[in-house]
Amino acid sequence: MEFVSRFGQLLTHDFCPGANRWVYWLKHPVACLAAVGLAALLFAILLKPLAWVVVVAVAFVLAIGLVWPWVSIRGLSCTVRFDVPRVSEGDAVTATINIRNRWPWPAWGLTLQERLETSFGDDDSLAEADENALAFSKVPGWSTSEYRWVIRPKSFGVYPTEPPRIGCGFPFGLYRSVTTASLENSLLVWPQVTPLETLLDAGAVSMADDRFSDCLVGEFGDLTGTRPFREGDSLRRVHWAQTARHDRLIVCERQAAVISSVEIVLDLHRFPFDPAVDTASAWSVRIAASLACAWHAENASVVVRSNDERLTIQPGRRGREALLDVMARLPHARSILDRKTVQATNAGLQIVVTTDPERIPSFDRGDHTDRRFVLVENGEPSGRFATSTIPINVNRPVPEQFQRAWRKVCHD
Fold first, then answer.
1. Mean pLDDT for the chain?
2. DSSP of 20-80, one letter per residue?
3. pTM over 0.70
4. What is the pLDDT of residues 111-139, one digit of tens each?
5. For a 10 Å CB count at each end of the chain, is N or C smaller?
């Protein structure tokens, strides 16, 4: 068996790699058929006229294999659309393609190139051609066919990254003619959001009439209790029933209108990046989105900052959607993050999500901002950090790991 293995390696060994560019074209079926046709032509001219049958057969195969795909694709037009404009990572979305055939004969051997992972249902007209393509069994002549399939994107971003292309290699696969399909709408895939049960306390920086605190005393909101009158209290706050009962002035205490401020700084190595490959940067975006959504749900004033760009999240559902839209487009950003020290822009809580451990000591601590760090790395965290740093190893389950570490920081 060892002799057979070595003999096989000897047969497949590349002895002249520098000559590959000169001989690799011989691997193409067209080159092989052309060589056969040329040999048959010489044989027919010099030796036996019967070899003209082989020459004609080879010429016929080459003509059909090269011309038919080109003619078939010229009679096709297709559009691709997604049923919804937005979806989260791992959720299913239906994609639809309409193919119109303007020729009277059917079109066979069509494939649609696309970059999303697909799962196929019971439609027999769809078949898996390869890892990144869909194959259609037949498109009848003078008709418009509609095909639907389910897509489950594994990473966030904007899909498709390139316009989808439909190709035809029927009947022999000697030549594949391609045309670009028109895209009716793109699919925006939001990053995965990890739910957080507890949050750190954030400082109050501004007042609002529609958001109230159960811990701070003010002039708005519900009645929280009573206390003895102090000099300077307004007579409008006097609780007359309690005053008559205790024979001294008693005033009411109400809630204070307040907005807590949180700033989330996303510090990545580079833009753009591929979420499917650069896992540390991808999980940094997911963690930053999770923190921002958690505080946004508690009606805090949330600011997400990266480089010189700041995004202030507006209240309500539209504010959350705008945040996730920006996070989903980060892999396609063209700006490079600066390497300057990140300064706080307000007196509230600041969370820094970074993938570079060397960046943590360089942050300026001269201000009075309460700052925490989340360090995301592709391996085990290197070195020891302060208790304000949460190390995350992307080689282990990140959501459970982050939830456990965040809960511990909040309880401490």
1. 79
2. HHHHGGGGSHHHHHHHHHHHHHHHHHHT-GGGHHHHHHHHHHHHHHHHHHHHHHHTEEEEE
3. yes
4. 887 644 444 333 444 444 344 567 888 89
5. N
Residue carrying structure tokens 């979420």: 275
Q: Residue for token digits 């508690």?
A: 298
CA–CA distances in Å: residue 159 to residues 147, 156, 189, 273, 331: 18, 9, 8, 15, 11
Phi-psi region of 232 (alpha: psi -120 to 50; beta: other; left: phi over 0): left
Tokens at 282, concatenated = 């991808």
Instruction: Using the predicted structure, report yes or no on whether residue 272 has a pLDDT greater than 80.
Output: no
Query: CA 255 to CA 222: how far, in whole Å?
Result: 6
Query: Which helix (H) or strand (E) is 213 found in, with range?
Result: strand 212-228
Taking the mean position of all CA atoms in its chain, how far away is CA 344? 28
The top-scoring range by mean pLDDT among 97-106, 337-346, 372-381 is 97-106
> For the residues 78-86, what does the mean pLDDT come to?
92
User: Is 327 exposed, middle or buried, given 0-12, 13-18 or 19+ CB atoms closer than 10 A?
Assistant: buried
Q: Are 156 and 190 in contact (CB under 8 A)?
A: yes
If you search the block for the tokens 């750190």, which residue do you land on?
Answer: 200
Which residue type sits at 261?
S
Minimal CA–CA distance to 114: which of 169, 183, 170, 163?
163
